[in-house]
Amino acid sequence: MIIRYMNPENLIHENEQIDELGRGLRIIQKKQGFKYGTDSVLLAKYILMSEGILPAKFRTGSMHCADFGTGTGILPLLLSRKEGFTHLSGLELQGEYAEMARRSVALNDLSSRITIVEGDIKSAASVFGKASMQLVVTNPPYKRAGAGIHSDLESEAIARHEIYCNLEDVIQNAAAVLEPGGAFFMIHRPERLADAIETMRRYKLEPKR
Which residue, among 130, 105, 131, 107, has the nearest Cα to 117 in the 3D structure? Predict the structure, then answer.
């Protein structure tokens, strides 16, 4: 993949920085505010290593993927390394982060393959259409609303706690936008494993690994 950088001065705003992702990719992030974490990197690596359990369309080079709660756009950027992902769509509730993620996409000259949409996970079927995706990925808020310590930064609190969506919202809407035979990848905390499996089965997403 050949990536042509745009002039960062035209894309970076105050209180922002450009970080290297490796293999020629870069990302714009807040100096103070929510940043992507190790979990997103681990999830992307797991997806890229799991080609054998993905739909056949992936192996023939045609895959449309949605990332629920894309934040900085880290997952679509990392997954763009795989040519089999024809198009990647990131859905983000927080307008400021959706706009910043779009600039990261432009910085890497990936606008033809990655689209960042400002919107609510609970409206994913309306945004993308039912049965429109072969793959849905997500690094959702882990903690129930009111549980644990809330960050004073609103963006971090929204990313870490189920304030605007919960585990069922994520799974229900993933099931709605996936076409039959599609794959759903999610990273979450071990203590929520039973909740995740029970909810996935309720919406006809059969856990495999």
Answer: 105
Structure tokens at 143: 């903690």
Going by C-beta distance under 8 Å and a sequence separation of 6 or more, which residues neighbour residue 188? 140, 142, 167, 196
d(CA 162, CA 89): 22
> What pLDDT, in 10s, does the model give residues 3-26?
444 556 678 888 899 999 998 999
Angle, vertex CA 41, rays to CA 190 and CA 3, nearest 5: 160
Q: For residues 131 and 153, what is the distance between their CA atoms, to the nearest angstrom?
A: 35
Nearest 5°: the CA angle 41, 56, 208 is 55
- Give the dihedral sign, CA 88/93/94/96: positive
What is the reported pTM? 0.86
The letter for the amino acid at 177 is V
